[in-house]
Design brief:
single chain, globular, alpha+beta, D-Maltodextrin-Binding Protein, domain 2, 5-stranded mixed β-sheet, 2 domains, 21 strands, Dipeptide-binding Protein, domain 3
Length: 496
């Protein structure tokens, strides 16, 4: 098993449901001189402690909590709390040179805090901690210099340090992470009104570029239609990762708004249970793949907005290859494989979380397959509790539609037979391990082979890659065109 983190799919489920980002002066009027950016989210985190729960870092990562290195909009690693770093010739030792700054509680950020934060990951309950298993030791050279030594060279480790496992905590402020957040970012944590909103405040002592708003509010609601109405009425100013792209036409030719369309790394995955049930049969999996009209599905359930991909690799990754041609829509071949599988009389349980985007795609997929003779039962599971327990924890499903937002997630989702996809083919896991330990050229070569192996084995199907769609008032700047991290990154947002 590779040292990639096993991120919870709950992240992507939350994001694809539609992030509604809104900005308004003074929280919506009243003549106040303060400015507020309000970010509407469809699902409230159950806790702020992302060391024990996979759904929490989206609002806090980068905005409040910072990492040594950061994933920029193009999937590249750039400096953050580490202003620079040196890598030894054997690629096992990293020397980080840290910025001189303070946490929001006034305590200085030092190499001791960085060491504490990295060492503490091994105690996390969240499966992300697996990515830190490659670390052999951490040591403090001086107050602003940290040395990390790996057990073996790892191409993924530094990249993973831009995610939640790389968050830098204050040593004396981790006793109540579920309710309080102490970070070094451009915003500080102010309050959490459960069932309503999380409020952040501009960090006046921030070491870098100051926040563009006095307050950043993450407000929780689920109705996409209400979000569109709020933008049209001027109640909010930005909608991001739009759940209903068919509604964009009302904004695209209106001079009051800007429509930003970029890419993401969120794969909408049709997982197939490789260990039990009818989908453990390779002919059955291949039959399903040939039986899906991907373009028609994308046109119907996401208005044609998105990118068709043939494996678990978005075009922004260096090892991307267009593999969509491996399983073209072929109803005749689908029927032949269905008959040959011996599973034609079996009913496939297709599960989806109770979120509109997934339900809609599930209905289209069910209809397409049933027209070819497949028996498909669509089951909507209450999200997150029931879906998480049944699908992710217990693997009790035949096919499941969900999304994965984690960058570089080809190996994390498929290299472990105990993970919910139940693939974990030894040859695939070896390619992942070799890619991580080899040179950058080896990484590209091996991961291309791994992606092709997934496609050849019909380990799953990739319905489409979610676009990053944002609608905003003309004067809102700094909104991310591309979404390549697990953060709702508002650090550059401002009003012109």
């Amino acid at each position: 098993m590779t040292p990639y983190p096993k991120k919870l799919a709950i992240l992507a489920v939350t994001v694809i449901a539609a992030l509604a980002l809104s900005a308004c002066s003074g929280g919506g009027g009243g003549g106040s001189s303060t400015s507020t950016l309000t970010v509407g989210l469809p699902s409230e985190p159950s806790t702020l402690d992302f060391t024990s729960n996979g759904d929490a870092p989206l609002p806090l990562l980068y905005n409040v909590y910072q990492t040594l290195v950061k994933d920029d909009q193009n999937g590249k690693i750039v400096p953050s709390l580490a202003k620079s770093w040196d890598i030894s010739d054997d690629r096992k030792t990293y020397t980080f040179h840290l910025v001189d700054t303070k946490f929001s509680n006034g305590e200085p950020f030092t190499a001791e805090d960085a060491k504490f934060s990295i060492d503490r990951v091994t105690t996390w309950k969240d499966s992300s901690k697996d990515a830190m298993a490659v670390v052999e030791s951490t040591s403090v050279k001086d107050a602003h210099t940290l040395v990390v030594t790996l057990k073996q060279a790892s191409n993924s480790w530094l990249f993973n340090m831009s995610s939640r496992i790389g968050v830098m905590f204050a040593k004396n402020a981790v006793n109540d992470l579920a309710n309080k957040a102490v970070g070094t970012g451009p915003y500080t944590f102010t309050s959490w009104k459960r069932g309503d909103s999380i409020t952040l405040t501009k960090n006046a002592d921030y070491w870098g570029k100051k926040a563009g708003f006095d307050h950043l509010v993450f407000k929780f609601f689920k109705d996409a239609n209400a979000t569109n109405s709020a933008l049209l009425s001027g109640t909010i100013n930005v909608i991001g990762l739009t759940q209903s792209p068919e509604s964009l036409s009302q904004f695209e030719h209106n001079s009051k708004y800007q429509v930003i369309e970029g890419t993401s790394n969120l794969e909408v995955l049709l997982a197939m249970n490789n260990s039990t049930g009818p989908m453990a049969n390779e002919d059955m999996r291949k039959a399903v793949k040939y039986g899906i009209d991907h373009k028609a599905l994308l046109d119907t359930c996401f208005s044609g907005r998105g990118t068709l991909i043939g494996s678990m690799v978005p075009p922004t990754d260096p090892w991307y290859e267009d593999l969509t041609g491996k399983y073209p829509y072929d109803p005749k071949k689908a029927k032949e494989l269905l008959a040959a599988s011996g599973e034609a009389d079996q009913t496939i349980r297709l599960t989806v979380p109770t979120l509109p985007a997934y339900v809609g795609c599930g209905q289209v997929l069910q209809s397409q397959l049933q027209q070819l003779g497949f028996k498909v039962e669509l089951k909507q599971l209450e999200f997150p509790a029931v879906w998480f327990d049944q699908v992710f924890t217990n693997g009790d499903y035949d096919m499941n539609i969900t999304g994965h937002i984690q960058p570089h997630d080809l190996c994390p989702v498929f290299d472990d037979p105990k993970y919910y996809t139940h693939y974990g083919k030894p040859a695939f896991a070896k390619l992942c391990a070799d890619a991580d330990a080899g040179t950058e050229a080896d990484q590209v070569k091996d991961l291309k082979q791994a992606a092709e192996m997934l496609a050849d084995d019909a380990a799953a199907d990739w319905l489409f890659l979610l676009p990053n769609l944002i609608v905003a008032d003309k004067d809102i700047t700094g909104l991310p065109k591309n979404s390549t991290s697990e953060s709702v990154d508002m650090t550059d947002a401002a009003r012109s």
